[in-house]
């Protein structure tokens, strides 16, 4: 199941493009969509690496590998809508993002 499509990098009100401001789960998903470069509705490791960089995070390659590994329940190498809650938990714990309602 796809996360959804977004054809530009806008973010919901209250969320900054760097992912540092406190945001709701819906805003987190909207923020992530901005990194879905191929618009397939899933987040790849490379796309997650760009999201980690946008938060100012160091070791973006390592963190993106860990993020996919921790959230990718079906082992396909991508984060889809069914796995987004696990990715939000990873973002809270490992990237210091404040996501409310997850």
Automatic annotation (TrEMBL):
Residue intervals of the EF-hand domain: 23-58
SUPFAM superfamilies: EF-hand (SSF47473)
InterPro entries: Centrin_CML-like, EF-hand-dom_pair, EF_Hand_1_Ca_BS, EF_hand_dom
Molecular-function GO term, any one: calcium ion binding
Region (Disordered): 1-21
CDD domains: EFh
Bias (Basic residues): 1-11
Any Pfam family: EF-hand_1
Keywords annotated in UniProt: Calcium, Repeat
Protein name per Swiss-Prot or TrEMBL: Calcium-binding protein CML23
Protein's organism: Actinidia chinensis var. chinensis
């Amino acid at each position: 199941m796809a996360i959804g499509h977004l054809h530009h990098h806008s973010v919901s009100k209250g969320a900054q493009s760097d992912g540092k401001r406190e945001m709701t789960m819906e805003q987190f998903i909207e923020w992530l969509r901005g990194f879905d470069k191929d618009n397939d509705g899933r987040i790849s490791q490379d796309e997650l690496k760009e999201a980690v960089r946008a938060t100012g995070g160091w070791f973006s390659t390592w963190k993106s590998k860990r993020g996919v590994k921790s959230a990718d329940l079906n082992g396909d190498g991508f984060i889809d809508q069914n796995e987004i809650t696990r990715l939000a938990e990873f973002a809270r714990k490992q990237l210091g993002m404040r996501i409310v309602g997850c």
